[in-house]
Structures are given as structure tokens and as C-alpha cells.
Amino acid sequence: MTEREQDSLLRKALQRVEPPDGFAERVLAKLPDRSLEKQRAPRTRSLTSWWSFPRFAWAPAMVAVLVAFAGAGIWKYQESRERRIRAERAREELVQALEITSVKVREAKSRLFRPVRGGIL
Amino acid sequence: MKLALFALCALGGMTCFGQQIDLSSLDKLAEKSTESSAITLDPDKLALAGSLLDDRQTKDLITGLKGISVRSFEFAEKGMYSKSDLDGVRKQLTGAGWSKVIAVKEKDEDVEIWFYKSASAGGLTVIAAESKEVTVVNISGPPDLSALGKLANLSGLSALPGLLGGSGKSPASTPKSGNPKPGNQKDEE
């Protein structure tokens, strides 16, 4: 084979051949729809990456509930403590008031029944 | 119409709180005194104090009271207060329902015990005026004054039961007019 024949054979082999009708459509139909995936990807990925782990998902809620309960407990304790202090003060005042009353009534009674000129009124 | 309603409310208030004496006119004596005690226990405070008591009967007695007011002043010298300072208190005791049951008058010493009695309320006022000391106590509560005498069990008030009828004479026998009971009056100048 001459050099010219070899060149002709090679040109023929490498000659562009047009695909059959509908080839491009068939190939594209078999590929997944990337355009839709690209649209969804950024949003779904951020949510799923966080919420896909239940322990992380419930942790903030649990912390919030615990903080709320702890706060309510502390508030209730403070309130009952203050109420107790006010009650203690009120009781002290009550006892003091009754003691003063007692002393004055007793004095009046003792003066009333004090012996006068050998007798008792 | 509004005036009539106001008058009705005022009359109702006077009926309900007639046994309560306003002792605030005595507060000015605190500045002159060397020692003073001013105690005012309203029903809320009494309920608070009662909440700490274990004894049911005493608790009921305390919470049944409508108020306790005490003003006590001690002075360094004689004449630091005048008898007219007590006029404001005495004026309130001239109202209906009050009766002076004990009046002891000695030199520089004057002790009066007044009772208030109505269908719905009772009360006690003690005025003790000495040369260097003046004490006024007002207790208002239920119509049954013997209940006040039972308070003796709380803080050693040994004198009250006999006077108020807790273990002795019934308070119902006290005069209902404003005149003192003659048998209980002693004047010694």
C-alpha cells in the first residue's frame, strides 16, 4: 500500500459521521435531571444536615424547657422565701403587740385590785 | 343617686370598721420619745402571721381579727407629751358601740380600757398614759370578745381572758353605753 492509499484510508476512517435521528434526545433522556437537583440542593442540604440527627434537633428544645423549669423553680423558691420572711416579721409584730397589750391590761388590773386602806376595790 | 350611693357606702364602712381606731395622730410623739413602738397589723399581715401558727384554733383567732394597732412611746422626762395628744384617739371612742369598762386614774397615771360591741364586730382599746410613757392599743375583731381573751395562750396574756371573758366573766355583761362601769373605776389622785 502506498503512502497515498494509506492516507486516503485513514481520512475515510476518521471522517465525521452524523448520528442517527433522535440520538441526542435519547441520550439526554437517560441522564438524571440535574437542573432540578441544582435548584433543590442548597436548601434541602442545610436542613437535612442539621435535622437528620435527632439528638441535635431536640437539644435546644430540651435546654429551653430545662431553663424554663429552673427559672420557674428559682422564682417560686424566692417568692416563698420572701413570703416566709414577711410572715416571720408579721408574727414578731403580732407577739410584740399582744405582749404590750398584756402588760398594760395586767397593770390596769393590778391597779384596779390594789389594796386601798386595808381593803380591795 | 350617686350621692345616695356614696352615703350608703360611707355608712356601711363606718358600720364595718367602727371598732378600728386611727392612731396615726400619735405618730408625731415619736420624734420626742426615746423609745417608740408603732405596730399596725392589717388583715393581710394577720393572715401572714397566722400562716406560721400550727395550732388551728389560734390560727383561726388570728385570721379572724380585723386589725391590731399599737403605739407606745417612752420619754426621757415628764411633760414631753400632753393629754391633749390623746384627744384624737379619745374622740373616736365616743362613737356608738364603744364603752369604757375600766378606768384607773392615779397620780400621773391614767389607764382606760374600752370595749366595742356590735352585732358584726368587736374591739378593744387600751389607753395607758403615764408621766414618761404613753401606750395606746387597738384590737378589732369578731363580735365575740372572748375570742380575744383566748389569745392569752399565744404569748402569755394572762390578764386578758378574765377581762374579756375567755375564762372568766362574759364580755356581754359590759355596759353598752359610753359610760364607764362604776365597779371597775378607780380614781386616786
Overview of the molecule:
The complex is a heterodimer of chains A (121) and B (189). By secondary structure, chain A is mainly alpha-helical. Helix content of chain A is 79%, strand content 3%. Chain A has four helices and two strands. Chain A has helices at residues 3-13, 23-30, 34-51, 54-112, and strands spanning 115-116, 119-120. A two-stranded antiparallel ribbon of chain A has the order 1-2. In chain A, 11% of the residues are buried. Chain B is an alpha+beta fold and 189 residues long. Chain B has one domain. Chain B contains seven helices and seven strands; from the N terminus they run H-E-H-H-E-H-E-E-E-E-H-H-H-E. Chain B has helices at 2-17, 43-51, 56-64, 87-92, 146-149, 152-155, 160-164; strands spanning 35-41, 67-74, 98-106, 109-117, 122-129, 133-141, 185-187. A seven-stranded mixed beta sheet of chain B has the order 1-2-6-5-4-3-7. In chain B, helix 2 packs antiparallel against helix 3 (56-64). Chain B is globular and about 45 Å long. Residues 1-16 and 165-189 of chain B have low confidence and may be disordered. The interface between A and B is medium-sized, with 27 and 40 residues.
Which SSEs are present, and which pair or pack?
The complex is a heterodimer of chains A (121) and B (189).
Chain A: H1 3-13, H2 23-30, H3 34-51, H4 54-112, E1 115-116, E2 119-120
Antiparallel strand pairs in A: 1-2
Chain B: H1 2-17, E1 35-41, H2 43-51, H3 56-64, E2 67-74, H4 87-92, E3 98-106, E4 109-117, E5 122-129, E6 133-141, H5 146-149, H6 152-155, H7 160-164, E7 185-187
Parallel strand pairs in B: 3-7
Antiparallel strand pairs in B: 1-2, 2-6, 3-4, 4-5, 5-6
